[in-house]
Write a structure and sequence with these properties.
Keywords: ATP-binding, Cell inner membrane, Cell membrane, Membrane, Nucleotide-binding, Phosphate transport, Translocase, Transport. One of its GO terms (cellular component) is membrane. This is Phosphate import ATP-binding protein PstB 3. The protein is α/β, with parallel strands linked by helices. It has two domains: 196 residues, Rossmann fold (3-Layer(aba) Sandwich); 70 residues, no CATH class. The protein contains 14 helices and eleven strands. The strands form two sheets. The protein has a seven-stranded mixed beta sheet, with helices on both faces. A four-stranded antiparallel beta sheet has the order 3-2-5-6, covered by helices on one side. A hairpin with a 2-residue loop joins strand 10 and strand 11. The longest helix has 14 residues. The termini are close together. The structure holds adenosine-5'-triphosphate (ATP). The site of adenosine-5'-triphosphate has 12 residues, from helix 5.
């Protein structure tokens, strides 16, 4: 869908973003904020005060990213609250996955990527050239759209992060395996078949196995990139319940296309558009009383 078509569908109401920053003068034409973004105008993200008051696990600061000549992220400033679920939403191609991948430096794997700005994890800058990326990734758990269990047993899948760290103690490995599978709400289903292949599980079980593997190393942040997009509704509902249960113990940043899912599972929602953070606030406010008309148009399905 072209940007222009998206924009045209958004009603140009008087209750636009411009009313927040300046009163409308008689006869003055209001310009939609998303149209201004598409035209390359500078603008400041709208971040609700309640987000700013939260303790942060991550702080994304003045962050820009280019794929070759093409800029994909523009001056993103975003605190990610600790112990909460934060959803990243926005139309396809707005940069949600790119931003998520920056947090665990997966974009380093792409030769053409260039970044500016910083991301701070619990006080530590993660973008410095001197950062040990392997150590950094141990502080993050990542779960992808498609479940990706390794071709090894359920047990070995879960304890994999400990194995690569050199852990050999059977008791420790068994304890972490059970704790992580329970944490991922799949223990009862697999406790009698831990030595079967992880690939023998259903798609939804495989995804919970991947979440168990992601939490086995007790990460500071759990990054979930559309973790339910390949799952049926029942498996999706189990993963959503699980995300709610993991909240508090883990800080979760999740990319989702599904507005109902974002509203069900997240505490905070960030709306992105064409590489910019547009509005970021408590999910209940973003879905029922956003500050921007454009956010309302997106979350109610009127474009994108
Ligand atoms: N490896 C890459 N090389 C070049 N451009 C890329 C690459 N990955 C993403 N992009 C571009 O960066 C922009 C943001 O893409 P990204 O995948 O982050 O968006 P998204 O919001 O996650 O989209 P979707 O919801 O469709 O997954 C898009 O214009 C995309 O084409």
């Amino acid at each position: 869908m072209s940007t222009q078509r998206e924009i045209e569908k958004i009603p140009q109401t008087r209750n636009s973003v411009n009313e927040i920053t300046s009163p409308q003068q008689p006869g003055e034409e209001r310009q939609n904020r998303l149209e201004m973004i598409a035209q390359g105008h500078e603008f400041d993200s709208v971040i609700h005060d309640s987000v700013k008051r939260e303790e942060c696990v991550l702080e994304i600061k003045n962050f820009n990213l280019w794929y070759g000549e093409k800029q994909a992220l523009f001056n993103v400033n975003m605190p990610v609250p600790k112990g909460q679920v934060t959803a990243l939403v926005g139309p396809s191609g707005c940069g949600k996955s790119t931003l998520l991948r920056c947090v665990n430096r997966m974009n380093d794997l792409i030769d053409t990527v260039r970044i500016q700005g910083d991301i701070v994890l619990n006080g530590d800058s993660i973008c410095d050239a001197g950062v040990d990326v392997i150590e950094l990734r141990k502080r993050m758990g990542m779960v992808f759209q498609k479940p990706n269990p390794f071709p090894m047993s359920i047990f070995e899948n879960v304890v994999y992060p400990l194995r690569i760290d050199g852990e050999r103690n059977r008791g420790v490995l068994e304890g972490v395996c059970e704790h992580s599978l329970k944490g991922a709400a799949i223990w009862d289903e697999v406790k009698d078949r831990l030595h079967e292949s992880g690939l023998s599980l259903s798609g939804g079980q495989q995804q919970r196995l991947c979440i168990a593997r992601a939490i086995a190393s007790e990460p500071e942040v759990l990054l979930l990139d559309e973790p339910c997009s390949a799952l049926d509704p029942i498996a999706t509902s189990k993963i959503e319940d699980l995300i709610r249960e993991l909240r508090g113990e883990y800080s979760i940043l999740i990319v989702t296309h599904n507005m109902q899912q974002a509203s069900r599972i997240s505490d905070y929602t960030a709306f992105m558009y064409l590489g910019r953070l547009v509005e970021f606030g408590p999910t209940v406010d973003i879905f029922t009383n956003p500050k921007l008309t454009e956010t309302n148009a997106y979350v109610t399905g009127r474009f994108g």
